[in-house]
Amino acid sequence: MRPAPGTTHATPRTARTSRAAARTTHLTGHAACTIHRLARTTDRNTVTTHTEESPMSTMSTFSAAALPRRTAARLVAGIAAVAVLTGPAASLATAGEAPAARTAAAGLRTAPAAADWPTLRAGAKGTSVTALQHLLNSRGQSLAVDGSFGPATTAGVKAFQKAQRLTVDGVVGAGTWSRLVTTLREGAKGPAVKAAQTLLKARGQAVAVDGAFTAAVTAKVKAFQKSAGLTADGVVGARTWAALLNGTPSGGDRAALAKQILAQKQIVLATVHPGGKHAGSTARQNIVDTANGKGALTSPWGDKPNRRVALDPRMLNGLLKLRTQYGYRISVSEIVGGDHSSNSRHYAGIAFDITHINGRHVGSGAPHKQFMAACKKLGAPEVLGPGDAGHSRHVHCGWPR
Questions:
Q1: How many CB atoms are located within 10 Å of the residue 190 CB?
Q2: What is the number of other CB atoms lying within 10 angstroms of the CB of residue 140?
Q3: Cα–Cα dist 27/36, whole Å
Q4: Cβ atoms within 10 A of the Cβ of 362, count?
Q5: In angstroms, rounded to a whole number, what is the distance separating the alpha carbons of residues 27 and 84?
Q6: What pLDDT, on the 0 to 100 scale, is given for residue 293?
Q7: 77 φ, ψ to 5°?
Q8: What span, in angstroms and rounded, lies between the C-alpha atoms of 73 and 62?
Q9: Is 337:277 a contact under the CB 8 Å cutoff?
Q10: For 267, how many CA atoms within 13 A lie in the half-sphere containing its CB?
């Protein structure tokens, strides 16, 4: 019907609103496909966009007779941008993320945190230093592999840091480790493999340090990864390197920690007691029982006799790191066995006693002050030694209750 003179043919508001909503929904629902499959044709003053995502897609034509070609192009880009910023299109757009960007994001999500890497500097000793020296040699250096962080190792670290445009301070922290380690898998050979084998051996895995990544080594890597709560794929990547260097299975696996302690020849565990005879509660048997999934046993003459006690992973980790991180050669006289005060942390499985440090008896020239400081850094609030009542000949390290 023709409108009456003097009036306009106005579309009812509800109808206009419905069509506007439909157009908005269409633009939003197909924004991702419009962005990635935009076929833009400029034929004089007409710009056409095609959406090809689903059978419901349509072709929308925008007449731009009164607009310059550049303005028409901007119009299409603006519509697409608005659609991306609204509704489900924002999440759909990420599906078209460039592979490189997805890979980088995945790497950021899975990369070890800075706290997962140990910090080594001049004066450090142990298997982590041995691994560091092997890794530096894999990068073209010729260091003697002796497990001692001396001047030559410091110079090697600085040379590597300079080549990698890192802070040249000779201290091996997260930034240096992450550049130094390399992904290893079956078939690899060389000094970097020796570094991994050295650490695997120190963590309780029976491997030869020969620089060949064989099927047997793959099996040992998988076993370590399983104990550390990592994906057991047999590939030594950044997370596995960090766990190997730290020597701490995630989740506080006391059995795995005990096995690593038993593998350390420089941690001597007493097989007798200073004050009695009971083979089942010696320091060594405490660790053997823990490695076999049992509790450690107290001595019959103690204040809490013949009890099975679960050794605390924090304490076990501290004992292990005194060797692997600080490089001490130590003799452990008691853990939960022996005779202690009635409320002793020994009976709770959170303390141990040390009689010898680096081959010297405590109280007879052993570096007990430095050792006691290391225990405190490893989380032991109760550290007693020469100068404290009843501790003139041994160092006691106890962790929080």
A1: 15
A2: 11
A3: 13
A4: 25
A5: 9
A6: 86
A7: -60, -40
A8: 11
A9: no
A10: 31
Three-state DSSP class for 58? coil
Q: Tell me, what's the pLDDT at 17?
A: 44
d(CA 290, CA 398): 18
**Closest of 125, 32, 118, 56 to residue 329, by C-alpha:** 125
What is this structure's pTM? 0.48
CA distance readout (Å), 250 to 107, 270, 345: 20, 28, 24
- Residue 99 CA, chain-centre distance (Å), reads 24
The amino acid at residue 401 is R
**Residue among 316, 390, 395 at smallest CA distance from 358:** 395
Measured between alpha carbons, how far is 287 from 217 in angstroms, rounded to an integer? 25
User: What is the CB neighbour count within 10 angstroms for residue 163?
Assistant: 12
- Give SS3 for 330: strand
Which parts of 139-231 fold into alpha helices (H)?
151-163, 174-180, 191-202, 215-227
Residues 305-325, mean pLDDT to the nearest whole number:
91
Inter-residue contact 398 to 342 (CB < 8 Å): no
| 17: its two tokens | 């609103």
Torsion of CA 104, 105, 109, 115, to 10 degrees: 50
Locus of tokens 């059978």: 55
Average pLDDT along the chain: 77
More confident residue, 98 or 232: 232
